Amino acid sequence: MLRFCLLNALRCKVQPDEPSSWHVKDPAKSGMLPVLEEQAPGKAEAGKAFNVSVPRARFEHAAGVTFTASLVDGRPLPSWLHFDAATLSLAGTPPKAFRGNINVKVSAEDVVGVKTDMILPVEVGGGPFVALPLQPQHLLAGRPFTFTLPEGSFWDPGDGSSLSLHTSRLPAWLHFDAAHRRFSGVPPTDGVVEVNVTATDSQQLSVTQNVVLVLLKPRGNQPPFIAHHIQNTHVQMGEAVHFIIPPSSFKDLDGDGLALHAVRSDGRPLPSWLHFDPASRAFSGRPGKADAGLLSVRLSARDSRGAEVQEDFILNITGGSPLGKEDFF
């Protein structure tokens, strides 16, 4: 049972014949505080909107009562969770990666300062989700190919168990090795093929995303293309920077080796504090206070016959938390 606590009862005396801002439909026995029947936790699923009402149980309120809500330790509710004092309801959409329990404290205070609290638990669950959307893959008809799903394409922050993968809508020439997340085959002709990849966790919860294969007729030199977009990166002022561009970011259907080159997106050289090593695909450096802000970087991949593709990404240089970071409190 959850018990209401009258925090200011010692300094506020209510006469029996005076109206109170809280009325007990079935008053508790004399000498006992009124009680509220325990509330089952509100259920929410990560990534999906939910709404749960605060129970009035055996209480009804009159005019002049103010309702507020916070976390049980007094901190504000996370940015994705909202309390409507008029309808006594909680609503929001938990971030996809959030799992766990939230204890919300709902407080009611009347015009004379008598205050009472109740705790409403909210359980946030959910299954795996798509963490890295897959880009279309370009293949040459009549030539063998392999394509490996990037690690982290699916994620399940729940029980930490490994995800099992399976596919559907595969043509006869296409094979999938679930243990190594690898597609392979020899496409017989040009066209477009879509297959489904499904990730399932130990609770049999699953999520599916499509893989699009664009099959091209061989003709002349095939230019390199972007296979996986480069993620924007947060950088702290005064701290060492070191990150490596994944080798799968660019591909060339002819199998040509690719030469990488980095500049600012407007064509100017990189700032003096930032260095790029094409051999290891590594960026490194240490930004100072004067370098704070958004730095747009352009990375080019050129094949041996001069065909080129470019990808822009952002370095967010700050002295605090990353912009747009989800509020998991």
| Amount of helix | under 10%
Distance between the termini: 28 Å
Number of domains: 3
Radius of gyration: 29 Å
CATH topology of the largest domain: Immunoglobulin-like
Q: Residue-averaged pLDDT, rounded? A: 79
- What's the main sheet like? 4 strands, mixed
CATH class of the largest domain: Mainly Beta
Q: How would you name the CATH homologous superfamily of the largest domain? A: Immunoglobulins
SSE pattern, N- to C-terminal: EEEEEEEEEEEEEEEEEEEEEEEEEEEEE
The side-by-side strand order for the widest beta sheet comes to 4-11-10-7
- Helices, by number, come to 0
Cα shape = flat
- The low-confidence parts are 1-38, 321-329
InterPro entries: Cadg (IPR006644), Cadherin-like_sf (IPR015919), Ig-like_fold (IPR013783)
Protein name: Dystroglycan-type cadherin-like domain-containing protein
Domain Dystroglycan-type cadherin-like: 34-128, 129-222, 225-324
Pfam family, one: He_PIG
